[in-house]
Amino acid sequence: MTLAYGALALTLSISVGALLSRWLVAPTGSHRPPRPLDDTVLARPGGAEVTDWGHCPAEDRQTLHEYHPDDSRTCWTCRTHTPGVRR
Q1: Count of domains in the chain?
Q2: Cβ neighbours of residue 59 under 8 Å, at least 6 residues apart?
Q3: pTM score
């Protein structure tokens, strides 16, 4: 019976320690990139979408981009401008 109480005390102390450490070191979210604006801002006046996922050379990953009429694009996360491909 003492072994069961010891195991219970150990489990409770680990749980309380985990909860306290999570509470004391609360995440701030500063490591996350800013969220893009809502859909009303991301649309052209005619209603056509101007955003799509594309490769960002500055971040070296897929991010949301605003595509311009000259086929250039701007990353919504870091605002890097990538020129369009000439055809």
Answers
A1: 1
A2: 75, 77, 78, 80
A3: 0.42
